[in-house]
Specification:
It is built from 6 helices and 6 strands; from the N terminus they run ααβαββαβαββα. It is of the alpha/beta class. The protein has a single domain, classed as CBS-domain. It is globular. The chain starts with a helix and ends with a helix.
Length: 131
């Protein structure tokens, strides 16, 4: 059995993180950085009312904030990645890996019946494969 056959039997929901942190679009990048540091997390979802608008990741700090010398008072809506790229909860982890590779991203929001129910990261995939 190839590794792809094996990985196609493992679903995204089997290894995704179910705890989601969300902020409103006016939250500053400084506040985001503090939340990431204190929570030991690498991604926060941006939500207005009940609508998910995008995501900000630890990588955004290097590629968007530091590289462009943006102020720490910059609202997250100015630098978040949008639209949010998602994968279905019952898709395989090999499908998640393909999307991440194709889109050159490291985090995917996981949806179930139109609702975001988790996040799966490239680290989740590596940790699973390293078992």
């Amino acid at each position: 059995m190839s590794s792809e056959d094996f990985n196609s039997s493992i679903l995204v929901e089997d290894i995704m993180a179910k705890t989601l942190i969300t902020v409103n679009p006016a939250t500053t990048v400084f506040q985001i950085a503090k939340m990431m540091e204190q929570g030991g997390i690498g991604a926060i979802l941006v939500k207005e009312n009940e609508n998910l608008m995008g995501i900000i990741t630890d990588r955004d700090f290097a590629t968007k904030i530091a590289a462009n010398n943006l102020s720490f008072d910059t609202p997250v809506e100015k630098i978040m990645s949008s639209p949010l790229i998602t994968i279905n909860h019952d898709d395989s982890i090999s499908s998640a890996a393909k999307i991440m590779s194709t889109k050159k991203i490291r985090k995917l929001a996981v949806s179930e019946n139109g609702n975001i129910v988790g996040l799966i990261t490239s680290t989740d995939l590596v940790n699973y494969l390293a078992k």
